[in-house]
């Protein structure tokens, strides 16, 4: 009965979420969920973001930061948060919501011609130096049909000796980051889905997965302690930040793509997610990452989150069914 109530609640959401509920939780046929997915372009969150695209192909006038972002002003102060309105973050959302890339026909070409990275002025699809930014660009480029093959090999060249990645490598860091590694893995997986298997990229992805798995998705390898409170803090949109739920969602996707079963080293992280489920079958929004946003796509902290409930329910169903 609790599950039935949760499903009814999840089906009353924006098309960007509803079609995924129909496909992944209800097991509906494409004849049911595909029409819902097509509505992402014309209704709700997806349509609102599409209407905000600039004539040059960008959003809010910039690649990673809005064109009017003051890097020395209050919005850049510590704790103010990352603005989420520029091109990369908007493309991330539209891709993750299942927008048909044909809806953005011509965008890849316009970005190639008009968009440059704030860090180094490089053309958009060439990427820059940040692992997470490059991973998003790799995934979005593969989705939109841009040639990002050169960017794909960048990750092999910048993988650290411990198997992962760190966005602060450019500052001299030689130890991988949970955040950077998971974001990179997600980008590599999306690229592999679109472009096909490359042995070198597959090996890099598997080494990155091993970096997280040998830490059981939660712990420091050196001390065995929980790496930080953010591993058990669940918030949607996920943005750049690591959490156990985001990690399990990745390993579910990788498992289904690779045709492999769950790795038991993720068991503790799975049970951490399970323990956050409330008696009514929902998960609470625990935090909202600060920063400028076009509009809210989920509930305020302290309220039951449809998005987190979907991701957690789907992750646990994959784990339990495979076991």
What do you see in this structure?
This protein is mainly α. It has a domain at 1-40. Helix content is 47%, strand content 0%. It contains 13 helices and no strands. Helix 5 packs across helix 7. The longest helix has 18 residues, at 178-195. The radius of gyration is 19 Å and the shape is globular. The protein starts with a helix and ends with a helix. The model has no long low-confidence stretch (mean pLDDT 95).
Write the topology of this structure.
Blueprint: H1 2-10, H2 15-25, H3 30-38, H4 44-50, H5 87-96, H6 107-114, H7 131-144, H8 149-157, H9 178-195, H10 199-213, H11 244-258, H12 267-275, H13 306-322
How is this structure best summarized?
This protein is an all-alpha fold and 323 residues long. It has helices spanning 2-10, 15-25, 30-38, 44-50, 87-96, 107-114, 131-144, 149-157, 178-195, 199-213, 244-258, 267-275, 306-322.
Give structural attributes:
globular, mainly alpha
| Order of H and E elements | HHHHHHHHHHHHH
Helix proportion range:
40-55%
Q: Which assembly state applies to the chains in this document? A: single chain
The rough form would be described as globular
Total of DSSP H or I helical runs spanning 4+ residues: 13
How large a portion of the residues is in β-strands, by DSSP E? Answer: under 5%
Radius of gyration, in angstroms, nearest whole number: 19 Å
Average pLDDT number? 95
Q: Distance between the terminal alpha carbons, to the nearest Å?
A: 24 Å
Unreliable segments of 5+ consecutive residues: none
Q: In total, how many beta strands?
A: 0
Briefly note the structural class of the backbone: mainly alpha
Largest sheet: none
């Amino acid at each position: 009965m609790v599950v039935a109530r949760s499903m009814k609640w999840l089906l009353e959401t924006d098309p960007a979420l509803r079609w995924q509920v129909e496909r992944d939780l209800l097991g509906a046929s494409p004849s049911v969920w595909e029409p819902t997915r097509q509505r992402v372009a014309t209704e709700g969150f997806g349509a609102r973001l599409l209407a905000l695209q600039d004539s040059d192909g960008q959003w809010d006038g910039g690649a990673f930061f809005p064109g009017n972002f003051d890097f020395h002003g209050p919005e850049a102060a510590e704790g103010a948060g990352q603005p989420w309105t520029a091109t990369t973050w908007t493309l991330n959302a539209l891709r993750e919501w299942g927008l048909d890339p044909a809806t953005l026909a011509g965008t890849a070409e316009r970005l190639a011609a008009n968009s440059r990275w704030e860090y180094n002025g490089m053309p958009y699809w060439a990427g820059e130096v940040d692992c997470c930014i490059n991973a998003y660009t790799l995934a979005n480029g593969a989705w939109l049909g841009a040639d990002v093959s050169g960017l794909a090999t960048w990750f092999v060249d910048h993988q650290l000796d411990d198997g992962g990645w760190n966005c602060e490598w450019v500052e001299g860091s030689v130890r991988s980051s949970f955040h950077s590694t998971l974001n990179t893995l997600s980008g590599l997986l999306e690229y592999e889905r679109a472009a096909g298997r490359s042995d070198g990229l597959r090996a890099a992805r598997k080494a990155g997965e091993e970096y997280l798995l040998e830490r059981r998705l939660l712990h420091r390898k050196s001390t065995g302690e929980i790496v930080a409170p953010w591993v058990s803090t669940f918030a949607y949109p996920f943005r750049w930040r690591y959490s156990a739920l985001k990690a399990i969602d990745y390993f579910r996707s990788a498992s289904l793509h690779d045709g492999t079963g769950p790795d038991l080293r993720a068991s503790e992280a799975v049970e951490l997610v399970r323990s956050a489920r409330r008696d009514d079958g929902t998960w609470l929004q625990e935090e909202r990452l600060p920063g400028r946003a076009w509009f809210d796509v989920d509930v305020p902290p302290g309220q039951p989150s449809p998005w987190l409930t979907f991701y957690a329910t789907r992750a646990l169903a994959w784990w339990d069914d495979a076991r």
